[in-house]
Amino acid sequence: MEAVRILILLIHPLAALGLLWWLFHQHSWKRLGKELRGTERAATLESHEVWGTRVFPALVAVISIAFLANIWRGYQEGSWTTYLLPNSVHGVTGLVGSVLLYITWNYGRRVVAKREAGESWAQEKIKHGRAADIIIIVGCIHAFIGFLHIFKVI
Question: Per the confidence metrics, is the pTM higher than 0.70?
Answer without folding.
Answer: yes
